[in-house]
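Now for one record.
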Amino acid sequence: MKKRILFALGITLLVILPAFAQLQNADRTLFYTQTGKTVDPGRLFMYNEMNFFTKVGDFIGNLKPQSFKAVNYWLVAGNTVFTYGIADHFDASLGIRVYQDTHYSNEYNLPDDLYLTFRAGDFAFGSGFFRGALLTSFRIPTGEKHNYPFTEFASGAFEFGFLSAVSFYVDPYFPDRTFSVHYNIGIWDHNEKGHVLYKYENAFRDPNGVLHPKGEELVGTVNSTELRMALAAVYPTDLFDFRMELSGILYLQRPDEFVYSAEEWAFLSPSVRYRPTEWLSLDLGADFRVSPSVRQWTSTIIPDISDRVDMPKNYPAWRIHLGANINFQLGHKRQTAEDIYTKEKIKEKKDFFETVLREKEKTKSVESEVESLRKLRKEAEKEIKDLKKILEEK
């Protein structure tokens, strides 16, 4: 009942609040994929986003306890992100995971962790068709519980990562209003070695017959690292952006086996963004798992509800995203698409005139050489006439 009330509250907030966004990507484009562009100086983006999965969990097997009742599980996470354009080619984002299901005795973290991201980008190359960026991100553990099932690994330690982003725009003068493709690759370090990753809330006897007393702690023995990748395409129209993303991870150093989400994953994420005004946009999207649903490495020494209830073995088969995005202009005149177009056209004309002047200088040099040759030819013709006259006189 408590989760249903919070879920209804989340939906209400999504309707009432004038802002919404995805934690790992705070700017105006995509859920999971970062772009090579940065936010304009003086522009503030505020974004709230919620994603959820729900399933009626029934008992697995024929020996169902008489007292067992099917349970309706909600896997809900809510995020709020602020992104500010600090200067040309540089912005920063502060993300707050407002709500996260944990499936521990506390049921949820409220709030969960903080995220801090710095991006240096909007570096144009390839005649302006490409934009590149470099990002560094940090996850600050402020939530009560970590290492929870059905979602990405949260170690409870100070996590960090580095990412590169490259974007291609069909029209460099209207990058947000033309078809674009974006690619990310980077490394994330969970930094969990020596950190308590699991603590038994109740005594537990694992399938090997080993009894784990209440309060026993399992400590991380490695710093797991993962390779993060994402590929996305955006097709904008006057009011809607149609988007498709493919994102996933590969472990370079696998976590300990008592980590719930010690699994590699990949999701295909179609979505649409509705832009009724210049300052507001609304998002609707979904994640569809394309990686295997079977458990890869997670150990049986920690309790797993999916062993006895029909729940995902690692990640949900789908998730729904709801969100909205609003931007404010602080301190600087907001650049419209027309402003950007005019600026780019001026730069293009300037480059053109500089090229013309260089060619003209070359032409003057050639004309000077031609004039010298004409003088030499006239002098040679005069000498030939003089010689001819001398010969005729003889």
Observations:
- The radius of gyration is 31 Å.
- The longest helix spans residues 337-393.
- DSSP finds two helices and 17 strands in the chain.
